[in-house]
Predict the structure of Clavesin-2.
Amino acid sequence: MTHLQAGLSPETLEKAKVELKENSETLHQDIQEVRDMIITRPDIGFLRTDDAFILRFLRARKFNHFEAFRLLAQYFEYRQQNLDMFKNLKATDPGIKQALKDGFPGVLSNLDKYGRKILVLFAANWDQS
């Protein structure tokens, strides 16, 4: 087990190994493979490339390096294209807290065709003020 897996229960580690193909022996190599792809997109400002952050994207794409990199690139590309949306975004903001309490966003009970959870935004429940 690596420091990146510290705090995970044995059951969670086993689930990650079986369902996500996470291997503690190759974890740093997997992360480095994704990090090495960053140079292929000089048009994107990758603000975070630390191990823990990249690991999130690997887990989200079941350790498929290319798909994890695509998701990472799309994440930063979206943030770059929508700077005004993210400049004052803080979880401690009272408006953000209220939006979360109001069910914005939500998670569908069904999965997508790849077995992933689907996050939805219930705009009808959201008081824009």
In short: The mean pLDDT is 87. DSSP finds six helices and two strands in the chain. Strands lie at 106-107, 119-120. The two ends are 47 Å apart (CA to CA).
